[in-house]
Amino acid sequence: MDAALSITTTFRAPGADRPYEDSPGPDGLLRYKWQGTDPLHPNNRALREAMERRVPLIWFWGVAPGVYKPIYPVFLVGEESEAHQFVVATDGLQNLEATGAGVDEVLRRYLFQQTRARLHQPVFRSIVMRAYETSCAVCQLRHAALLDAAHIVEDSHEDGIAAARNGLALCKIHHAAYDTGILGVTPDLHVEIRGDILDEVDGPILEHGLKRLHGQALRVVPRHARERPAPELLAQHYESFVSATVPRAARVDLGFDGRGTTVHGR
Question: Does pTM top 0.70 for this prediction?
Fold first, then answer.
């Protein structure tokens, strides 16, 4: 039992700083800070032992006070003593090493993308599901297996933060409709359905699952104001939704002036 079994990143409320900031390095792999600055601190020695034995660890990532999402397995693949930190790789990536050739840049991009995906996605889902109490924001469906954590602004965008205010808990049909521009959410949290879909005649799923939602307010929003969808992020996505469905000159008729402002009531 000399080697560590897990590492932990504490929850950070929006706008607050963590006591230790675990962030990606230039090679795309994440860094995990030492406990303090003493290399012989028992926690640091246990982590070093895990690194030398190449054993897997569990990373507990804080998503709320006292609530953690486990990410596993992860591996410590290096130590940067000057910066008081260890280098962390996700499963399978610990065996990828720099070659000294021109492929290194491609390798770094791959490592960054894979590490981000393996950590970002489950953490983001946990944050959003907790905020929306495991319910679809549009239809209130409560079956977790049928729910997704949808990004308002995609995570590849500079504004695509992994926070509840950039997320919506959506069932799979409404998530697909949101991502493909069939369903939009206004900055004041109302649902809109694309015009050609409203004109279409089909079965009960289209009629009751989409068309009848047009103009309705979201049925579920987070209790805490800081976790509710950010109007400016909703405005970015809604602008794309409107741009793809109506001419620019007609946008005011939908009640949106392009700045996240509702022009008239519903």
Answer: no
